[in-house]
Write a structure and sequence with these properties.
The protein has eight helices and seven strands. It has 185 residues and is of the alpha/beta class. It has a single domain, classed as Rossmann fold (3-Layer(aba) Sandwich), CATH 3.40.50. The radius of gyration is 15 Å and the shape is globular.
Length: 185
């Protein structure tokens, strides 16, 4: 079901979804593997899609950590609400990551420790990408980290104009290629 939903959303909105299939649990663990879950108070995920990363974040976080998901797709949003119904300290927003500062103000969240994103910044309109990246930088606490997964190697140029690059890891398999970026405010 998840793969069918993801593929359907990709066919309808390829520039917004950015991949044909959802990430694997293995890849999710690799991307968020060095988040300090024991001390994180606030974690935001942009474009959670079918919830692969969300599931890993919710499994590893401490019970008091607040997690905010921002999903633009109505289909993905409804799937996430159904899938994670009853989860404590989880807020699922059906909207654009461009408005993250407004969402956080409404939730009385003063800053974010970590932002995790798989948004396809290289295929989104340039102004939207810039706005999301700038807003991400503004909501992160001073030593906050931005974890960004992309299937496009060129994404490094897009995000490194706004954040100093701490680390990037490339992963290539017989079915896919991805780059994980770790960026610090």
């Amino acid at each position: 079901m998840k793969k069918q939903l993801f593929l359907s959303e990709y066919i309808q909105h390829p520039a917004r979804v950015g991949a044909i299939l959802p990430s694997s649990k293995y890849l999710a663990r690799k991307v968020i593997g060095d988040i300090q879950f024991d001390s994180a108070q606030y974690i935001v995920e942009f474009g959670p899609g079918t919830g692969i990363f969300t599931e890993e974040i919710l499994t590893k976080r401490s019970p008091d950590t607040i997690v905010v998901l921002v999903e633009l797709s109505d289909e993905f949003y409804h799937n996430l609400v159904e899938r994670f119904e009853g989860e404590d300290n989880l807020f699922i927003i059906n909207g654009s990551a461009e408005n993250i500062d407004w969402y956080l103000r409404k939730l009385n969240i003063p800053y974010v420790d970590y932002v995790v994103s798989g948004l396809p910044f290289t295929t989104l309109p340039t102004e939207i990408s810039k706005k999301i990246i700038n807003k991400t930088k503004s909501v992160l606490k001073d030593d906050g980290l931005f974890y960004y997964l992309s299937i496009y190697i060129a994404s490094e140029k897009t995000v490194s104009r706004f954040f100093p690059l701490c680390e990037s890891q490339k992963r290539v398999s017989e079915f896919s290629a991805s780059v994980r970026f770790k960026l610090q405010k």
